[in-house]
């Protein structure tokens, strides 16, 4: 099975692109961080990223989703972010990587979980705040840089996906997966 990562700065269109790929019949795995933030907001914690276990909560959900998705008979899967993104988030927030995150990074490397080619969506020139996304455009550019550096430092190759219409981005990604 081929597992592709779709990543990029917050607000780069990952979720919209992921949903478009799903409509095309591709197996997709949703992002974990947004779901953790939404869950914590529901519990009254408006800044869950300040909690000591925030990174571990994301990592655990990512691992659970990846293991569940491995049971599907799909030839390929597309993941909205990965534990490598969680490492980038940890670095962005100034947290040392937790044992939970380090163990998961070791597991995905040892088991060769993800393709080494990663679809990296370039920013759209703005970042729209949401309930889960409280980051400015300027902050998102720093986060984008940390993401790119983190993936490169772990030996992943970024396939940059330029900002264009979703249909064009979908076509480029499908083309690359079929011919790459």
Automatic annotation (TrEMBL):
InterPro entries xrefs: NadR/Ttd14_AAA_dom, P-loop_NTPase
Limits of the NadR/Ttd14 AAA domain: 3-169
Top-level taxon of origin: Bacteria
SUPFAM superfamilies: P-loop containing nucleoside triphosphate hydrolases
Any Pfam family matching the protein: AAA_28
Signal peptide (from-to): none
Protein name: NadR/Ttd14 AAA domain-containing protein
């Amino acid at each position: 099975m081929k597992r592709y990562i779709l990543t990029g700065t917050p607000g780069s269109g990952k979720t919209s692109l992921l949903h478009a790929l799903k409509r095309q019949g591709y197996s997709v795995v949703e992002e974990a961080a947004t779901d953790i933030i939404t869950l914590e907001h529901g519990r009254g914690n408006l800044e869950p990223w300040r909690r000591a276990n925030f990174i571990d909560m994301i990592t655990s959900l990512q691992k659970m989703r990846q293991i569940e998705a491995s049971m599907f008979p799909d030839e390929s899967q597309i993941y909205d972010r990965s534990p490598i993104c969680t490492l980038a988030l940890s670095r962005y927030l100034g947290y040392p990587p937790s044992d939970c995150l380090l163990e998961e990074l070791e597991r995905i490397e040892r088991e060769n979980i993800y393709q080494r080619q990663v679809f990296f969506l370039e920013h759209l020139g703005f970042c729209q705040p949401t309930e889960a996304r409280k980051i400015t455009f300027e902050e998102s550019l720093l986060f984008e840089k940390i993401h790119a550096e983190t993936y490169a430092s772990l030996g992943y190759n970024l396939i940059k996906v330029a900002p264009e219409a979703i249909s064009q981005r979908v076509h480029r990604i499908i083309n690359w997966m079929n011919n790459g």
